[in-house]
C-alpha cells in the first residue's frame, strides 16, 4: 500500500524503537524512517540489529542501533543516550520489545511468568523512564506502547502475556496523565493477528490450512493484518494529526477482538425478529400484559 501520509511528515524527528530489529518493530522503524524520521533501533541480538540497520540504510533511511536488554535499566539509559548522542535529540519512543510463548498456566514456571512481565511491562516502563528527560526536552515527545488484545476478555494459553499487556495499557493511561503537562503524548497500538510475524508463528504454530482458516474466520474484516497496518498507525500517532490524542490504545485488529459466535443465521434475522415482535404487539394491544 502506498502511504497516505506525506513523506516528510516526521522530518526533523528522531525515533527510538525497542525490538526494532525484526518483525513488527522493524516495519514500524521503517515506516517512521520513510516518513522522514531518523531512527535508532535496539534489541538483544547484534547481528539482527546490524542487518536491520543495513536494510534501512539501503532504503535511504538515516538509521543506527544500540544493543541492549530492556529488562536492565542501565541498558535503557544507554539506548536513549545513544540516540541523543547520534542525532542530538529524541522525539518518538516506540516500546515494541516483547517476549512470548504459548504455555498452560498450571505448567508455566514462576520464572517464565516473570520473564514475560519483565520484558514487556518492566521494559516498557524502563525505557519510558529513561527517555523522559529527552522526550520532555523535545517539546513534542511521543511514546507509543505496542500491546495486544489478548487481555480484552481472556486468551487461552496466554495468562502471562495477557497480564503483561494489560499492565502496559494501564501504564499508557498513567503516563499520558502524568506527562501531558510536559508536552508528551503517550498512546498504544494493540495489534491483532498480523501476517508473517514471529507472534503468529509462535502463537499459532503451523498456521496455514485449517488453523489459518479458523483464525481468519474470527476476523470480521475477513483477512489478517499486515505489519504496515501497525506501522502506519504509529506514523499517525507520531504525526501532528494525532496532536490531541493521548492515553489511548488503538486496536488494529480488523475487529477480531469483538468476534462473537453467530447463533442466528444472518438470513433468518429479519423474519425471526418480525415474527416475535408481531406476536408481542398482539399481546400488548389486546391482552393484559401491557
Ligand atoms: N514455555 C514455557 N516456559 C518457557 C518457554 C516456553 N515456550 N520459553 C521460555 N520459558 C521459560 C523458561 O523455561 C524459563 O523459566 P525456568 O527458568 O523456570 O525454566 C523462563 O521462561 C525464561 O526463559 P529463558 O529462555 O531463560 O529467557 P530468555 O530471556 O532467554 O527468553 C523468551 C525470553 C522466553 C520470551 C524468549 O522466547 C524470547 O526472548 N523470544 C524473543 C522474542 C519473542 O518471543 N517475540 C515474540 C513476540 S509474540
From TrEMBL:
It comes from the Eukaryota. Keywords: NADP, Oxidoreductase. Pfam families: adh_short_C2. It catalyses: a (2E,4E)-dienoyl-CoA + NADPH + H(+) = a 4,5-saturated-(3E)-enoyl-CoA + NADP(+); a (2E,4Z)-dienoyl-CoA + NADPH + H(+) = a 4,5-saturated-(3E)-enoyl-CoA + NADP(+). GO terms for biological process: fatty acid catabolic process. Its EC number is 1.3.1.124. GO terms for molecular function: 2,4-dienoyl-CoA reductase (NADPH) activity. The keyword Membrane does not apply. One of its GO terms (cellular component) is peroxisome. This is 2,4-dienoyl-CoA reductase [(3E)-enoyl-CoA-producing]. It comes from Prototheca wickerhamii.
Amino acid at each position: 500500500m502506498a502511504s497516505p501520509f506525506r513523506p516528510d511528515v516526521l522530518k526533523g524527528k528522531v525515533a527510538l524503537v525497542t525490538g526494532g530489529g525484526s518483525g513488527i518493530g522493524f516495519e514500524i522503524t521503517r515506516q517512521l524512517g520513510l516518513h522522514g524520521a531518523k531512527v535508532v533501533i535496539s534489541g538483544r541480538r547484534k547481528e539482527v540489529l546490524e542487518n536491520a540497520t543495513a536494510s534501512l540504510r539501503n532504503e535511504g533511511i538515516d538509521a543506527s542501533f544500540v544493543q541492549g536488554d530492556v529488562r536492565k535499566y542501565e541498558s535503557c539509559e544507554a539506548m536513549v543516550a545513544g540516540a541523543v548522542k547520534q542525532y542530538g535529540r529524541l522525539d518518538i519512543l516506540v516500546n515494541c520489545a516483547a517476549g512470548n510463548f504459548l504455555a498452560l498456566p498450571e505448567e508455566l514456571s514462576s520464572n517464565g511468568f516473570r520473564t514475560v512481565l519483565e520484558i514487556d511491562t518492566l521494559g516498557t516502563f524502563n525505557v519510558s523512564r529513561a527517555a523522559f528527560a529527552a522526550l520532555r526536552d523535545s517539546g513534542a515527545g511521543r511514546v507509543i506502547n505496542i500491546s495486544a488484545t489478548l487481555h480484552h476478555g481472556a486468551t487461552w494459553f496466554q495468562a502471562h502475556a495477557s497480564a503483561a499487556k494489560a499492565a502496559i495499557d494501564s501504564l499508557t493511561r498513567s503516563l499520558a496523565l502524568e506527562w501531558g503537562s510536559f508536552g508528551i503524548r503517550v498512546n498504544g497500538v494493540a495489534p491483532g493477528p498480523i501476517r508473517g510475524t514471529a507472534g503468529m508463528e509462535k502463537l499459532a504454530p503451523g498456521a496455514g490450512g485449517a488453523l489459518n482458516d479458523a483464525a481468519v474466520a474470527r476476523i470480521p474484516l475477513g483477512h489478517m493484518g499486515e505489519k504496515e497496518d501497525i506501522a502506519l498507525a504509529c506514523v499517525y500517532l507520531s504525526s501532528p494529526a494525532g496532536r490531541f490524542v493521548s492515553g489511548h490504545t488503538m486496536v488494529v485488529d480488523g475487529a477480531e477482538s469483538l468476534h462473537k459466535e453467530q447463533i442466528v443465521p444472518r438470513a433468518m434475522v429479519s423474519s425471526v425478529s418480525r415474527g416475535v415482535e408481531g406476536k408481542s404487539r398482539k399481546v400488548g394491544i389486546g391482552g393484559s400484559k401491557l
